[in-house]
Amino acid sequence: MSELFETLADIEHQRWSDWTRYQFSRCQENKDGSLIIPAELVEHWTRQTETDYVDLTPAEQASDKEQVHRYWSLIEIQLTAKDEQLKVAQDRVAELEKIGLYIVDAYEGLNNDTIDKELETQITGMSEALDPTDKE
Fold first, then answer.
1. Is the pLDDT of residue 111 over 90?
2. Residues 64, 56: contact at Cβ < 8 Å?
3. Which residues on adjacent β-strands are paired with residue 29?
4. Which of 4, 99, 108, 130 has its CA 20 to 30 A from that of 77?
5. pTM of the entire structure?
């Protein structure tokens, strides 16, 4: 996950760098290197910062969507992987539930203490099977 995080941070830095260069290109440069943002751009950018996405113009929304495209494929890959992991986990749970039913059937007629101890052992085994990485 930290690799994905670093990749997203890199994309964010690229996005920010592009935006900053764009802003600087629209400003007037003074002799000392400082910049003056023209009033019409201050007004325009202020309006955008104070406007919810749904209320932006279609062109402004398209611009925001262009930025999302920089990292959308990474998100899709992660979502697909999570869906696959969830399916595997659900299949494991279904298998373990079947095993659990067989265990209960096998121990019918035994006293409650014996059943409780055996079920505890089986549940521990099921838990470990669900998350084999959770070893101490």
1. no
2. yes
3. 35
4. 130
5. 0.55
**Bridge partners of residue 80, in order along the sequence:** none
3: tokens are: 């690799």
Query: Average per-residue pLDDT in the chain?
Result: 82
Question: Is the CB of residue 35 less than 8 Å from the CB of residue 26?
Answer: no
Of the ranges 69-73, 101-105, 112-116, the best mean pLDDT one? 69-73
Distance CA(90)–CA(118), nearest Å, equals 24
> Cβ(126)–Cβ(132) under 8 Å?
no
Q: Domain residues of the chain, as ranges?
A: 2-70, 74-130
Give dist(CA 92, CA 94) in Å, integer. 5
> What pLDDT band is residue 110 in, cutting at 50, 70 and 90?
low
Handedness of CA 107, 112, 118, 123 (dihedral sign): positive
Q: How far apart are CA 16 and CA 45, in angstroms?
A: 15
Greatest CA separation for the chain: 94
